[in-house]
Design a protein that fits this description.
The complex is a heterodimer of chains A (586) and B (246). With 586 residues, chain A is of the alpha/beta class. Chain A is built from twelve helices and 22 strands. In chain A, a hairpin with a 5-residue loop joins strand 19 and strand 20. Chain B is mainly alpha-helical. Chain B is globular. Classes of the chains: A alpha/beta (586), B mainly alpha (246). At the A-B interface, helix 2, helix 3, strand 5, helix 8 and strand 11 of A face helix 1, strand 1, helix 6, helix 7 and helix 8 of B.
Chain lengths: 586, 246
């Protein structure tokens, strides 16, 4: 039997980055906020103290902090003709679980998308003519200019370290000259770069490119954020991505927002509570609350005035499909919207092997890197190239942990004596120049409910149908040689190029940058949410996260995810509270 | 909507009485309500890494697995191999624990052979795959060479492993390739993981490749400018000369 609970003002489904952002702003505005989080409580001194946080096996390989596939997973296939099979353990991406979500074990590479990324369809069509058949790229419905104050605020919450490239239209030396105009500089100077970045920078400059420090949520110095939270200088420990930071040096919900929230009387958090569905009023115009289950197996109905889905793109999409909200996307007809435009990221790279010099990759940090943006978005002329979008090229020093990272030159076998000796010879002497490319939406890439496989509660798993598109392949074929050229200029003995070939593989780790499924836009026929991230169908349902992206840009998502969350929550407070209803007329 | 007024009423309902949430509080924990951060100092959760009592392999399996690891990462005079790193102990504990049981994996059927991009699709959790594949491997070796894998020459062993890796040798019921991929992955884990898990004994693999282990402060070394950094490795247990008890 489902137990009824008393109503709250706002329920947040999931308590990662976006959950924390909504909770902070809504409680500050005086609302009673309840966050329901599927996973456990987690915090620095208890769960990732420096006495045991640097445990590669536990955190990365045994998935110490990620969602367990046994809780719920996705089924996967490359195309609609195949039978999707469950990802029995995670590989290509690692969804978070527990307080702080993936914000605990992210790297902290904190970019803003380009102004043109938000108007990808209209901008590219105006410059290059109609998009090709099958490409379902759309505009966001919100502009970079509207989001700018929110990017700025998130950067201050996180204490992002970087060099401004465009301060109110003034192009600054050492920053990214292609970025949209910023209203303010980064709150902190860039991190201290190391050998590999110095080489990358010199090589890129020789080629006439404009290298800039990657905006980093790993602190270059001690910092106090606008909420009074203190962050400590990063120690370049190298146990960053896939690990929590034991030093209070990586911005996460835990280090920047949650302690402030926990002191507010109008905020409540329930952990180990998994939301099963969003419930609707009989007329179907409003959400009445959510049904959730705790680890005892007891079910609860939690009513609320407003529901916000903050459960990461994959689970947000699944919850909408399971709750029968909106029309599921149909790849045959192209109609329907929920599950539409699932996108990912197209990665490639070139590894440099040195003979004399040591790169000492263990001295690194999640977001320690230099990048160039000449080949991102529409920063270069695509005429005649047959693709749109692009990616940044960067050299990071991170992840030189030996189970994960022990590159050997081409031609060395994968095991045996030769392999072992090659690992020793090269372990401390390699670095990689990576391309982090965009993924454009295509009609055949989407999310829906699996017809066969179910989770532990007997509900259908999400089914992912995804492969790299012609656009992705042309994009990576165009930019990877540039990365290779930079790599060759870095003075090593040899360079190995890892091109993006073949079909998308669900197993080797690539990025946790899953986007789409609950996309935003200007028309309810083609999007799930309006420009305020409000469901077109239920006006008191809001959606957060990269699921809102109509297609993925050539950057890491979280800066833009956070800016959209702050933009949306401002609309709830300033407009919706006064007059609840659709904020955009369909 | 008049949020501020309702807030007061709600508070009395939700937080005034304990009755509502109490029954499940043991399961779904409740935090917040102005009470601050719910953690106690020095109450960290150190890892579970198995004990000497944990074992999974039978003596025959153990011998075969040790022999496989010894070919994947050989003791070749250049430095320690899987034998010196005691990878077999690591594997035995892993197979006996939650990992071997596939406890955190999605193990519901139906099971089907997947495409190359669909990942692990065996109906067996890791330990089960080892058990079935080792039995098949033993049968294969006895049929071909009249001896178990461990008794074969290094060259014969390499040939069989290569056959499995290249999908030229197949087994009944389980995939030889899936087993090869898994044991290679696990062997690398055991070679390079922190010694608390039983492998990488005395941090031999970290010494060998020059990884300083679980240190967490390299601020003094960021400006190394391509020079070698010589730091003896440290494990989560510390290292000789590091702990005050040494
Ligand atoms: C290894 C790794 C590295 C990354 N590095 C970067 C980077 O360098 N730069 C960058 O920009 N981004 C990076 N990311 C991505 C970044 O972490 C995410 O963009 C960000 O955390 C998304 O925020 P979110 O609030 O949408 O989701 P999350 O932070 O993941 O939070 C979602 C929460 O919802 C909970 N939840 C899910 N389903 C339910 C349910 N049914 N009921 C209740 N709770 C539920 C989950 O347990 C989770 O805690 C990385 C991610 C990973 C995993
Ligand atoms: S690299 Fe820096 S931010 Fe990352 S975990 Fe280590 S100390 Fe923390």
């Amino acid at each position: 039997m489902t137990k009824q609970l008393p109503k709250v003002d706002v329920i947040l489904v999931g308590f990662g980055w976006t959950g924390a952002i909504y909770a902070e702003k809504l409680t500050a505005a005086g609302m009673e906020v309840l966050a329901l989080e599927r996973g456990p409580w987690r915090d620095t001194p208890k769960d990732f103290a420096t006495t045991f946080a640097q445990d590669e096996l536990r955190y990365y390989w045994r998935h110490g902090m990620f969602q367990e596939a046994s809780q719920s997973t996705v089924t996967f296939r490359n195309n609609g003709a195949q039978t999707a099979l469950p990802m029995r353990h995670w590989g290509s991406f690692l969804p978070g679980n527990g307080v702080g979500g993936s914000g605990v074990h992210w790297n902290g590479q904190t970019y803003r998308f380009l102004p043109s990324d938000f108007v990808a369809k209209s901008h590219n069509e105006e410059r290059y003519g109609p998009l090709p058949e099958g490409m379902t790229v759309q505009d966001y419905g919100v502009t970079y200019e509207e989001l700018e104050p929110h990017f700025d605020y998130f950067e201050k919450i996180c204490g992002i370290c970087g060099t401004a490239g465009n301060l109110r239209g003034d192009i600054r030396k050492g920053g990214n000259p292609f970025e949209g105009p910023r209203s303010d500089d980064y709150p902190n100077p860039p991190m201290q770069m190391t050998f590999s970045q110095d080489r990358f920078e010199a090589s890129a400059r020789d080629m006439g490119l404009n290298p800039f420090p990657v905006p980093s949520a790993n602190m270059s110095r001690a910092y106090v954020n606008p909420l009074g939270m203190q962050l400590a200088p990063c120690t370049y420990c190298g146990f960053c991505e896939k690990h929590g930071c034991g030093n209070y040096s990586k911005s996460s919900p835990q280090t920047t927002i949650i302690p402030v929230l926990m002191k507010r009387e109008n905020f409540t958090l329930r952990t180990d509570s998994e939301v099963l569905s969003v419930e609707k009023s009989p007329d179907g115009t409003r959400a009445t609350g959510v049904t959730y289950i705790d680890t005892s197996g007891e079910e609860f109905f939690q009513p609320a005035e407003v529901v916000v889905l903050c459960a990461y793109p994959l689970e947000n999409t699944r919850l909408m499909l399971l709750s029968d909200i909106g029309t599921p996307y149909d790849p045959q007809t192209g109609e329907g919207v929920v599950g539409k435009n699932y996108c990912y990221q197209v990665m490639s790279g070139a590894t440099v092997f040195y003979d004399e010099e040591y790169t000492n990759g263990f001295v690194g940090a999640g977001a320690l890197g230099m990048a160039v943006d000449e080949y991102n978005g529409d920063n270069f002329d695509h005429s005649g190239l047959g693709f749109i979008g692009g990616g940044y090229i960067a050299c990071y020093t991170t992840n030189a942990r030996p189970i994960e990272s022990h590159p050997v030159p081409e031609g060395v076998p994968g095991w045996g004596s030769e392999w072992k000796q090659s690992v020793r010879a090269n372990f401390l002497k390699t670095t990689t120049v990576g391309v982090h490319g965009a993924s454009m939406a295509h009609r055949s890439n989407y999310l829906d409910l699996d017809p066969t496989y179910t989770d532990r509660h007997g509900r259908p798993l999400l089914r992912m149908t995804y492969d790299f598109t012609l656009n992705d392949r042309r994009l990576t074929a165009h930019i990877t040689p540039v990365a290779e050229e930079i790599a060759r200029g870095m003075g090593g003995r040899e360079v190995n190029v890892a091109e993006r070939k073949g079909s998308y593989d669900s197993m080797p780790y690539q990025t946790t940058h899953n986007t789409g499924g609950t996309i935003m836009g200007t028309d309810p026929q083609t999007s799930v949410c309006n420009r305020y991230c409000q469901s077109w169908d239920l006006h008191n349902l809001f959606v957060a996260g990269a699921g809102l992206f109509p297609q993925n840009a050539g950057y890491n998502p979280t800066g833009t995810v956070a800016a959209l969350a702050y933009w949306s929550v401002a609309a709830i407070i300033d407009q919706y509270m006064a007059d609840p209803g659709p904020l955009v007329q369909a | 909507m008049s949020f501020p007024t309702r807030r007061k009423i709600l508070k009395s309902l939700l937080f005034g009485g304990t009755a509502i949430a109490a029954p499940s509080a043991v399961f779904g924990a409740i935090y917040g309500r102005g009470e601050g951060m719910p953690w106690e100092p020095l109450k960290g959760q150190p890892p579970y890494y198995g004990t000497h009592e944990d074992w999974f392999f039978t003596p025959d399996e153990r011998e075969a697995v040790a022999a496989i690891c010894a070919r994947l990462i050989p003791s070749d005079g250049d430095g320690p191999g899987a034998v010196e790193a005691d990878v077999i102990t690591f594997l035995d504990r892993q197979m006996a624990g939650f990992y071997g049981r596939g406890q955190h994996w999605y193990m519901k059927g139906p099971f089907r052979e997947g495409t190359a991009t669909q990942g692990y699709q065996s109906e067996h959790p890791p330990a089960g795959l080892y058990r079935h594949a080792l039995a098949e491997l033993d049968g294969y070796c006895r049929a071909q060479q009249d001896a178990g894998f461990a008794a074969l020459s290094a060259a014969q062993q390499d040939e069989i492993l290569k056959g499995m890796d290249d999908e030229e040798i197949t087994f009944d019921g389980v995939s030889a390739k899936a087993f090869f991929d898994l044991i290679l992955k696990n062997t690398i884990e055991g070679y390079f993981a922190d010694p608390i898990y039983g492998g990488n004994r005395d941090m031999v693999a970290w010494h060998y490749v020059g990884f300083p282990g679980t240190r967490y402060d390299y601020r003094d070394f960021v400006g190394h400018n391509g020079a070698r950094i010589d730091l003896p490795p440290v494990s989560l247990m510390g290292r000789p000369g590091w702990n005050s008890s040494e």
